[in-house]
């Protein structure tokens, strides 16, 4: 669950509804608070839509795996550090007191379990530097990778040098650039112009002092754009496909009845995370560069994602709900559950390492194979017509 904020407009573009900078900052905090309330209350708000496609994958069970549990190694390298699990807490909210409290608990859980964690958008720090401590989490989690978060539109409009200096001050290990045009279009004050964002990302990557992750926010990144981003120097692509939090729906709960009705038509928009992974299988340039998030809810979702090519798996909404219910301790318990499931799946498939898990021990349903084939065919057809994503 990411609550990106590319509508926190830079100075010179005007504020929210034309209000002053102070009022704009207050409005942003209110919006972030509402986002959290909507995502946390599943009795009133339905924000998870679509399908990840992972339900159409399974494993070939090995009744005689011929390995011992203590031989299993779940560790990988990520953002220049060795981590004990191929799992990260995806970027959450930022810019509100409630968001700060939640993020602090998530970072505590990340340190306790040895997994990476993403923070909310740092855009607000350029207008409200006094909340720096809301994002300076390295002192709480010195031993795990922490990555910052910024909107794709900001790479087009902001002075990169100032962003880079802030990243150094925050002592982060990476930065995620989020793409969220769907969400922006359902914010009354959201961005409407997405021209030049790819070029902004490319220029940003050229000078960035830390690795760059580019992520969607629930609708996925198709394989041709994945390849273009890798060619531009992006370190990791977080597919962030459908099946999880639908930010069009989240924004619709804050909108007029007419906007809500329009949003309903986008419940099944985007690419399922599992299908995207399937479409990227066999692409050598993508090896070790693909992150899977979007609709992952179980430990087996992580195992399946890794088996079809993901380098690591990210979860957002499950963690934000866990800390809401029981703080860092409940988030730690969730990590332990995911780890137990992953280790069990590895042993029951005879996989000593995460790389071994990618050795073809999968069952793909006909529906999954057809979805992958259809997506690949559609992309090839677009390519023949000369259409290039991101231009």
Tell me briefly what this model is.
This protein has 391 residues and is an alpha/beta fold.
What does this structure look like?
The structure is a single chain. This protein is of the alpha/beta class and 391 residues long. It has a single domain, classed as Aldolase class I (TIM Barrel, Alpha-Beta Barrel), CATH 3.20.20. The protein contains 14 helices and 12 strands. The protein has an 8-stranded parallel beta sheet. It has a two-stranded antiparallel sheet with strand order 1-12. A two-stranded antiparallel ribbon has the order 2-3. It is globular, with a radius of gyration of 20 Å. It starts with 20 loop residues before the first helix and ends in a 7-residue tail after the last helix. 50% of the residues are buried.
Low-confidence stretches: 1-20
Distance between the termini: 27 Å
Percentage of residues assigned to helices: 40-55%
What is the annotated CATH architecture?
Alpha-Beta Barrel
Helix count equals 14
Major sheet summary line: 8 strands, parallel
Number of domains: 1
Which CATH C-level class is it? Alpha Beta
The shape, in one word, is globular
Strand content: 5-15%
Give the helices and strands as they follow along the chain.
HEEEEHEEHHEHHEHEHHHEHEHHEH
Spell out the key features of this protein.
12 strands; disordered N terminus; 14 helices; alpha/beta; 12% strand; 391 residues
Topology:
Layout: H1 21-40, E1 57-59, E2 76-78, E3 81-83, E4 87-89, H2 97-113, E5 117-121, E6 146-151, H3 152-157, H4 160-170, E7 174-179, H5 181-185, H6 197-207, E8 212-216, H7 223-231, E9 236-238, H8 247-252, H9 257-264, H10 273-280, E10 290-292, H11 299-307, E11 312-315, H12 317-348, H13 354-357, E12 362-364, H14 366-384
Parallel strand pairs: 4-11, 5-6, 6-7, 7-8, 8-9, 9-10, 10-11
Antiparallel strand pairs: 1-12, 2-3
Helix pairs in contact: 2-12, 10-14, 11-12
